[in-house]
Design goal:
Pfam families: Dymeclin
Largest sheet: none
Order of helices and strands: HHHHHH
Number of domains: 1
Helix content: over 70%
Keywords: Lipoprotein, Myristate
Distance between the termini: 21 Å
Mean pLDDT: 85
Protein name: Dymeclin
Shape: globular
Family: Belongs to the dymeclin family.
Number of strands: 0
GO cellular component, one term: Golgi apparatus
Radius of gyration: 16 Å
Protein backbone atom coordinates (compact mmCIF):
# COMPACT_ATOMS: atom_id res chain seq x y z
CA UNK A 1 0.00 0.00 0.00
CA UNK A 2 1.50 3.30 -1.00
CA UNK A 3 1.00 6.43 1.09
CA UNK A 4 -1.47 9.04 -0.16
CA UNK A 5 0.03 11.86 -2.16
CA UNK A 6 -3.07 13.71 -3.33
CA UNK A 7 -6.43 14.39 -1.73
CA UNK A 8 -8.00 11.77 -3.99
CA UNK A 9 -5.40 9.24 -2.86
CA UNK A 10 -6.35 9.98 0.76
CA UNK A 11 -10.06 9.59 0.01
CA UNK A 12 -9.41 6.26 -1.71
CA UNK A 13 -7.26 5.04 1.19
CA UNK A 14 -9.91 6.09 3.71
CA UNK A 15 -12.62 4.21 1.82
CA UNK A 16 -10.48 1.06 1.59
CA UNK A 17 -9.70 1.14 5.32
CA UNK A 18 -13.19 2.10 6.52
CA UNK A 19 -14.55 -1.41 7.14
CA UNK A 20 -11.37 -2.59 8.89
CA UNK A 21 -11.35 0.50 11.11
CA UNK A 22 -15.04 -0.01 11.95
CA UNK A 23 -14.31 -3.58 13.04
CA UNK A 24 -11.32 -2.40 15.08
CA UNK A 25 -13.48 0.21 16.77
CA UNK A 26 -16.03 -2.43 17.76
CA UNK A 27 -13.48 -4.93 19.13
CA UNK A 28 -10.57 -2.83 20.34
CA UNK A 29 -11.77 -2.02 23.86
CA UNK A 30 -11.74 -5.76 24.57
CA UNK A 31 -8.74 -6.85 22.51
CA UNK A 32 -6.46 -3.83 22.91
CA UNK A 33 -5.08 -4.41 19.42
CA UNK A 34 -4.55 -0.71 18.71
CA UNK A 35 -2.57 -0.30 21.92
CA UNK A 36 -0.46 -3.28 20.91
CA UNK A 37 0.19 -1.68 17.52
CA UNK A 38 1.32 1.49 19.29
CA UNK A 39 3.65 -0.61 21.47
CA UNK A 40 5.10 -2.24 18.33
CA UNK A 41 5.63 1.22 16.82
CA UNK A 42 7.38 2.33 20.01
CA UNK A 43 9.69 -0.69 19.92
CA UNK A 44 10.52 -0.01 16.25
CA UNK A 45 11.18 3.68 16.94
CA UNK A 46 13.50 2.78 19.83
CA UNK A 47 15.36 0.31 17.59
CA UNK A 48 15.77 3.01 14.98
CA UNK A 49 17.04 5.49 17.58
CA UNK A 50 19.53 3.00 19.05
CA UNK A 51 23.16 3.80 18.19
CA UNK A 52 23.69 0.64 16.16
CA UNK A 53 26.14 0.94 13.29
CA UNK A 54 24.62 -1.76 11.11
CA UNK A 55 20.96 -0.75 11.06
CA UNK A 56 19.37 -2.04 7.92
CA UNK A 57 16.67 -0.71 5.68
CA UNK A 58 14.23 -3.37 6.90
CA UNK A 59 14.16 -1.81 10.36
CA UNK A 60 13.43 1.57 8.80
CA UNK A 61 10.58 0.13 6.71
CA UNK A 62 9.11 -1.71 9.70
CA UNK A 63 9.10 1.54 11.67
CA UNK A 64 7.52 3.40 8.76
CA UNK A 65 4.82 0.74 8.30
CA UNK A 66 3.94 0.67 12.00
CA UNK A 67 3.72 4.48 12.13
CA UNK A 68 1.66 4.60 8.94
CA UNK A 69 -0.82 2.09 10.38
CA UNK A 70 -1.05 4.10 13.63
CA UNK A 71 -1.61 7.27 11.59
CA UNK A 72 -4.44 5.73 9.57
CA UNK A 73 -6.22 4.38 12.65
CA UNK A 74 -5.78 7.60 14.63
CA UNK A 75 -7.18 9.58 11.70
CA UNK A 76 -10.24 7.33 11.65
CA UNK A 77 -10.69 7.59 15.43
CA UNK A 78 -10.35 11.39 15.38
CA UNK A 79 -12.96 11.67 12.65
CA UNK A 80 -15.35 9.11 14.16
CA UNK A 81 -15.28 9.24 17.96
CA UNK A 82 -14.64 11.90 20.57
CA UNK A 83 -11.36 12.60 22.31
CA UNK A 84 -12.22 10.75 25.52
CA UNK A 85 -13.37 7.68 23.62
CA UNK A 86 -10.22 7.79 21.49
CA UNK A 87 -8.05 7.83 24.62
CA UNK A 88 -9.94 4.78 25.93
CA UNK A 89 -9.13 2.95 22.70
CA UNK A 90 -5.47 3.96 22.83
CA UNK A 91 -5.07 2.79 26.43
CA UNK A 92 -7.30 -0.34 26.20
CA UNK A 93 -7.51 -2.83 27.77
CA UNK A 94 -6.95 -1.72 31.34
CA UNK A 95 -8.71 -2.12 34.65
CA UNK A 96 -10.59 0.88 36.02
CA UNK A 97 -7.96 1.71 38.65
CA UNK A 98 -5.09 1.34 36.18
CA UNK A 99 -6.96 3.49 33.68
CA UNK A 100 -7.11 6.39 36.14
CA UNK A 101 -3.43 6.11 37.01
CA UNK A 102 -2.14 5.60 33.46
CA UNK A 103 -4.45 7.95 31.56
CA UNK A 104 -2.85 8.84 28.22
CA UNK A 105 0.46 7.20 29.15
CA UNK A 106 0.71 5.24 25.89
CA UNK A 107 -0.19 8.33 23.86
CA UNK A 108 2.40 10.40 25.72
CA UNK A 109 5.04 7.74 25.04
CA UNK A 110 4.16 7.77 21.35
CA UNK A 111 4.32 11.56 21.09
CA UNK A 112 7.65 11.67 22.94
CA UNK A 113 9.06 8.97 20.66
CA UNK A 114 7.85 10.79 17.54
CA UNK A 115 9.50 14.02 18.67
CA UNK A 116 12.74 12.17 19.38
CA UNK A 117 12.51 10.46 15.99
CA UNK A 118 12.05 13.77 14.18
CA UNK A 119 14.96 15.37 16.03
CA UNK A 120 17.48 12.52 16.00
CA UNK A 121 17.02 10.52 12.81
CA UNK A 122 18.66 12.06 9.77
CA UNK A 123 16.85 12.20 6.44
CA UNK A 124 18.51 10.10 3.78
Amino acid sequence: MRPPITRNDQIELDSRLDLSCQQLLVNNLITGNFGTLIQVALVRINELLAPVQNQNIISTWQTYNALFAVRCILKYFIETIGEEEMLKHIEAPQTASANEALSSLRLEELLDALIELIIDVPLW
